[in-house]
Amino acid sequence: MQRLRQKKEIAVAKAEADRQSNDARINSEREIAIKNNELDMQKAELQKNADSKRAEADAAYEIQKEEQRKTIEVTAANANIAKEERLVLLKQREAETMEKSLDAQVKKKRKLRN
Hints:
The chain is mainly alpha-helical.
């Protein structure tokens, strides 16, 4: 009888130890799951921040690119205007030279008639 009671006590003690071990394992797995979840959330937040910074940098790049394109267009337009102005001046000088030449020819013909 004593032996039966000892076996029963051993079985109860073993069952309690198994329960405590199982509880410890479950608690450990729960803590690991919580920590993994926290880690995943932190990673997601860091990725969100990185994506946001990348989007800001991309937008800034596009703005700068557009500003440079506008600057190039303005510079090209100004160069074309300056070229046209030089052509107008050249045509004016050519016209003045032609006028002087024609005036000289008219004066020469008048002089020859007189």
